[in-house]
Amino acid sequence: MSFDYDLFVIGAGPGGIAAARLAAAYGVRVAIAERDQVGGTCVIHGCIPEKLMVYAASFSHFFEDADEYGWGKVQRRINWQQFMTAKDRAIEHLSQLHIKHLKEAGVELIYGQTKFLDAHTLDVAGRKITADKILIAVGGEAVKPNIPGFEYAITSRQMFELKQQPEHIAIIGSDQIAVKFAGSMNGLISKVTLIVAENRVLLNRDEDIRTAVQEIMEKNGIQVLCNTTVEKIEQIQDGFRLNLSGGKQDTVTVNTVLCATGRTPNLSGLDLEKVGVEVKQGAIAVDEYSRTTQTNIFAVGDCTSRPHWTPMAIATGRAFADTVFGNQPRTVNFECIPSALSSQPEAATVGLTEAEAREKFGESVRCYRSRFQPLFNSIAEPEEKTLIKLVVDGNTNEVLGAHMVGEYATEIIQCLGLAVRKGVTKKDFDATIGIHPSAAEEFFTLR
Ligand SMILES: Cc1cc2nc3c(=O)[nH]c(=O)nc-3n(C[C@H](O)[C@H](O)[C@H](O)COP(=O)(O)OP(=O)(O)OC[C@H]3O[C@@H](n4cnc5c(N)ncnc54)[C@H](O)[C@@H]3O)c2cc1C
Ligand SMILES: NC(=O)c1ccc[n+]([C@@H]2O[C@H](COP(=O)([O-])OP(=O)(O)OC[C@H]3O[C@@H](n4cnc5c(N)ncnc54)[C@H](O)[C@@H]3O)[C@@H](O)[C@H]2O)c1
């Protein structure tokens, strides 16, 4: 049977683009469908605009520090519209780069909402297209809890489209998206109230990291309401009133409510039931080669239950192309993935938390930590300390986890990620000469 394409990819986010380009490099005919802008959540509505917002926010801390360093006072007020326009320009540039790369690779780009008609036939905005293999890379979208008034709350996607800077924003959630926006909006000089259902932010991270991040957020002026849930959101003149329970405050009144309470795969409207692709707990079920329960259909990225990170979507997209079109079957190792919270404060982590290590290795686990004043802060922010921590298996001396809260944590932990993945020992750390003066050198002098 002849098909229009050897591979059809649904969704031009990081996973879909990576797979399409590599498959095309193997010489097969590839097309990719996108219903929005090319680049996906990462480039258009996620990592990139979020990081640009972090950069914008970082200036206010620098301006404060500049004064201490002798530069005098700098006005700490952002022109929101100017920043949003600059951000949109940068995003459009990146999206155009992806379009160019797809074109150069020989991948045909087709715009439109896509759904399955049968296991080899798709409907792309009314056009019928056939393909031998199909890759689903449709990503995910934010979900809001089913609570009265939650229609007034916006999600991360709408945060990047706000026409006006909120004077006071309530952020509901306690994981990466909530904590990152809280840090950024605080840096951009909005008043921020973070509503956390748990006893502290960043559940499932190392306890020392959770404590240090929250301490710095509070020191920076973010109001963190812990053990608190939102019962109802009411619209009032010029804003919204949130009715709260469980914590020390019953209500809070704000101009904007951001809901960062999780994401779910974008599966509605794909008509997956027509093609026998199994969905488990809302995500597409795949084997280690990203194959679904329909043998010619595959899935990568946030529409599966694998970790929801851009590098994961790219890695599994490439492994799929190598396996199916490059005659090099390979899987992706999901262990020891470094991750970061590149906000104010910055934090990053790789490997096991202390609690996870103790559960796995028991009493032999040794932790080495240091909370120190980085040199920069000796003039600017004497109370703000950096935290570093190594979790080590006392029996083998292997480093099981590395964690950091402080400036440059993202870049430092990215590099330590390689060492931890390769089974580095504490003795290797001790034998490594640091670069002085730096924050990273402290990892090599821990005793
Ligand atoms: C606010 C935020 C910040 C983030 N920050 C980071 C970060 O700092 N680092 C990190 O690693 N990860 C981050 N992530 C996660 C990261 O964005 C995702 O893991 C990544 O984008 C997943 O890539 P993907 O290719 O699976 O899907 P996506 O990037 O979601 O792309 C899927 C694409 O498919 C399209 N699509 C969906 N359905 C259809 C259809 N039926 N027909 C046609 N097209 C369709 C969508 O329009 C979209 O463009 C962040 C996410 C958010 C929301
Ligand atoms: N922003 C980033 O840096 C980044 C980076 C990579 C990946 N991601 C991915 O984005 C996805 C979504 O992140 P997220 O932070 O939105 O969600 P999440 O699923 O990681 O966490 C949801 C949070 O919302 C809270 N919550 C849920 N219901 C609530 C309610 N009714 N009231 C109060 N709190 C409630 C939970 O306690 C939890 O802390 C994750 O899969 C994450 O891996 C984000």
TrEMBL record:
Its cofactor is FAD. GO terms for biological process: cell redox homeostasis; cellular response to oxidative stress; glutathione metabolic process. The active site is at H436 (proton acceptor). Binds 1 FAD per subunit. NAD(+) binds at G262. GO terms for cellular component: cytosol. Disulfide bonds join C42-C47. Residues 337-444 form the Pyridine nucleotide-disulphide oxidoreductase dimerisation domain. The keyword Glycoprotein does not apply. Residues 5-317 form the FAD/NAD(P)-binding domain. GO terms for molecular function: flavin adenine dinucleotide binding; glutathione-disulfide reductase (NADPH) activity. Its EC number is 1.8.1.7. Keywords: Disulfide bond, FAD, Flavoprotein, NAD, Nucleotide-binding, Oxidoreductase, Plasmid, Redox-active center. Pfam families: Pyr_redox_2, Pyr_redox_dim. FAD binds at K51, D302. NCBIfam families: PRK06116.1 (NF004776). Belongs to the class-I pyridine nucleotide-disulfide oxidoreductase family. This is Glutathione-disulfide reductase.
